[in-house]
Amino acid sequence: MAQRRQIRVSRSLDGGGERPATGYGEPEAGAPQRSERQASGAGQPRAGLGELGHGRMQGPARTMVGVTNADIAAVFEHVADLLEFQGENVFRVRAYRAAARTIGSLVESLASVRADPARSLTDLEGIGTDLAGKVGELLDHGRLGLLDELRTRVPAVAFDLMRVPGLGPKKAKTLLTELKLTSLDDLEQACRDGRVAGLKGFGEKTQAAILENIAFAKNPEHKRLLWNEADAIMHALLAWMGGCPAVRQIAGAGSWRRGRETIGDLDLVVEAVDAAAVMDHLGAWKETSAVLLRGETKTSVRGPRDVQIDLRVVEQDSFGAALQYFTGSKEHNVKLRSRAREQGLSINEYGVFPLSAGGADAARSKGRSRGGATEEEVYRAVGLPWIPPELREGGEEIGLAERAALPELVELGDMRGDLHMHTTATDGEDTLTEMVRAAIGRGLAYVAITDHGQRVSMARGLDRKRLLEQWSEIDRLNESLAADGRPPIVVLKGIEVDMLEKGGLDLPDDVLEQADWVVASLHYGQNQPRDRITARILEAIHNPNVTVIGHPTGRLINRRPAYDVDIEAVIEAAAETGTFLEINANPWRLDLDDRHAAAAKRAGVKLVISTDAHSTRGLDVMRCGVLQARRAGLEAKDVANTRTLAQLKKLMKK
Q1: Domain count within the chain
Q2: In-domain check, residue 6
Q3: 11 in a structural domain
Q4: Is the whole-model pTM more than 0.85?
């Protein structure tokens, strides 16, 4: 009789079904643009970068399917940093950074591009013959000889310094040369002694900012993988494990399944007919660099990007219980077990059992489980409905489930529009027409084109004249789209204006009042005092022409902390004026975060989930924003751009 096999991956964001494993072709879009990276210190070396496959790839070259686009982009950024540190030709540095942006936002895997006989890596923007060779070297060997060579020329402490937000290669080199630093602790002491402020190009404000950001750089939390990076690894891992004949069903668990912004390790739960065969199969994966431990039913290995992968093999009757247990969170499970005890039950990774003198193990040995084959059985056994993984953080979810008041979480399929994106008019990679065509291909009903205003000069921000010309182009495009009847999409005339350091916006009201959609964001003066930054945002909120506040706290995950802002005052003002707040879906941002988005919902503020895409590929990160919204407990009704355009316009304050 054929064996039952079910390869479970994750609950889909667009309907609760299962999403198939797709390997490393998952979107890697969303790395900050260079203007932001320079300001934030983004692109600095991270744990494990530049050492892909170190010490484990000997013999003939072979394509390493686990080398992701994100890996290669990170290596190229690392090379650019080291070249800049050593004072190399600025054009060579820019070439590596441009290639990193292209690769980091590419949806299709570079291995697939190279394997296609009709295509070439040099077809990609910014990838010439030399860089294509470097990509091939990484795909074949998992490491780059140039990077190995450059690393020998740069002191190890330089990498620590460049993790401090705001410290790029040039400033790091100055600090090392002038102050003879050997550690971050040395840098901290030099700041406290006032020695950094005395260096040319630094000063008191820079010294204070460095001192404040050292703690951020030291925090191990900021060395974790972004969720979408971990997601790419998880899907490749599930695709590999799905090829093991012994596997009956398999699912990812842990913080990845709960949609945490950053991931420390990956968890797999497997039902199999042969535990040893499953663990052997994981050990045989090309990306397994070391087996850390192995028992009869569990193993831990080191995988891509040095991430630890923990695998547990369970029986069919325990699969749901194990999935629930290892999904967590710890706080959620503590509350769930407490509820079970109140009902005379015990929950563990094997199932739900009655409490007895012999304990859960004795009950298990007697086959007295009240449920465990599915998660639904586990929750039902203690009188609860199934709770979505994104809500399992030990907050209100148990109480909501008790009252049958769990939210019907927003899904990717609910999204009708994308209201923050850029084109080649400023710092985008694709034209207006290309962005609109890509949005149509993704089934969107409307988009807003929101290129930067004139304050963002590094991105060639639009002044009055260029903006009005773009809006005229949008008018013509909308007319063309509607020429044959009902248009497939409506393009809104938008702009991302900057909140100026001294107050006000970087474009006048007589221009903004002609816009369909105005995003107001804060890109400069992020180190101003709390009251000043808050005042700038509140002023924008009270401007009748501003529709939404973009990435309201300004953070870049793992790279730059949020600026100091009174977010409660921002939420209160947004509720008062009807201004929307954004959940920026860029995986580096996810701003607002889940806590602030939940607070905004409680205050009656409508949220907007937007991609902030700088390319057609960047539109694919919408799923990351939806995942963040689900963690905040948002329903479709809480998100403005789940509505039709007519309904959205009724919500707008003008």
Answers
A1: 3
A2: no
A3: no
A4: no
